[in-house]
Every structure is written in structure tokens, then in C-alpha cells.
Design brief:
Helix content: over 70%
Length: about 160
């Protein structure tokens, strides 16, 4: 039966409940200058409840089996944390992440350059449109001037002809 931390209602009183009472009954020993002691006491009490549980083992063989189970749990927890295989994968992953981040930075710089050049192209397009408008207006003015020049030529020619007669 696993311990749920409710030792007062447990039908089988284990050693953990008595140890918990002792731990919880000595708050005067906690030095306010050392708050770490209270934290350690809390951690110890939690570990006692986890390790002992309701119906804590009374036989040495049960104690050895529980210790072996705890050692196996620690080994299982430590699997894959530091062997060469996982370290090489971690290194590869870190290098890949670094390359990905640098590629993103370079892509951002390229986008910035493209935006700058696009702004320049847009400005050139506006200037070209203004130049076309000015050229069109100049052409219209030149056409009007040509028409006036032709009218004046005709007028002067007629005047010259009229003055000879």
C-alpha cells in the first residue's frame, strides 16, 4: 500500500508517521538565520513518506529489496544523460540550432536589404512617372507652340503678300 501522506487515517501505522511527528514537533530548532534547515527538514520528511509508505518494511530483506529498487530507479533516471552517443547528438543539435539561428539572422538581413532596394525602385518608378508627365506636358506645349508658329507664319506670309500689292 503506497503512502498518501495521511498517516492519521492509515489503518497500519508505519515508522514514517512517528518520524514525521518528530520532525514536525521541533520548529524551535530552526534557526531564522538558516532558512535552508527548514527546507531540508521538509525535503527529508517528504522523502521519508515516499520511502517508507504505509506498512513500512520490517524485515531486512524487504529493506534490501526497496534499496535495490531505489538504486534501479536512479539508474533508469540517469540513462542517456552522459554517454558518447547522446553527447554527439546534443552537439549536432546545438550546431544545427546555431546554423539555423544564423540563417534566420542572414535571412532577416536579406529581407532588410530587399526592402531598402524595393524602396529605391519605388522612388525611381515615381521619378520616372514624374518625368513622363513632364515630357507629356512639354510635348503638348511644343505642339501648341508649333501651331502658334504655323499660324504666325501664315499671318506673316499673308501680311507680306498683302504689303506687296
Amino acid at each position: 500500500m503506497a503512502c498518501d501522506g495521511n498517516c492519521a487515517k492509515c489503518p497500519v501505522q508505519c515508522g514514517a508517521s512517528k518520524i514525521m511527528e518528530k520532525i514536525n514537533s521541533k520548529p524551535e530548532d530552526v534557526n531564522p538565520d538558516k532558512p535552508q534547515i527548514a527546507k531540508e527538514q521538509k525535503t527529508m520528511s517528504e522523502e521519508i513518506v515516499k520511502a517508507a509508505g504505509c506498512g513500512a518494511p520490517k524485515e531486512p530483506e524487504e529493506i534490501r529489496q526497496n534499496a535495490a529498487i531505489l538504486r534501479l530507479a536512479e539508474k533508469v533516471e540517469g540513462l542517456g544523460k552522459g554517454d558518447a552517443f547522446t553527447n554527439s547528438h546534443k552537439a549536432t543539435m546545438n550546431i544545427t540550432m546555431a546554423l539555423a539561428i544564423s540563417a534566420m539572422v542572414l535571412a532577416g538581413i536579406a529581407i532588410g536589404i530587399c526592402l531598402y532596394l524595393a524602396k529605391g525602385i519605388s522612388d525611381a518608378d515615381k521619378n520616372a512617372a514624374c518625368a513622363v508627365d513632364l515630357a507629356t506636358k512639354a510635348s503638348i506645349s511644343a505642339t501648341a507652340a508649333e501651331d502658334r508658329a504655323n499660324k504666325n507664319f501664315v499671318y506673316l506670309r499673308d501680311m507680306k503678300r498683302d504689303s506687296r500689292h
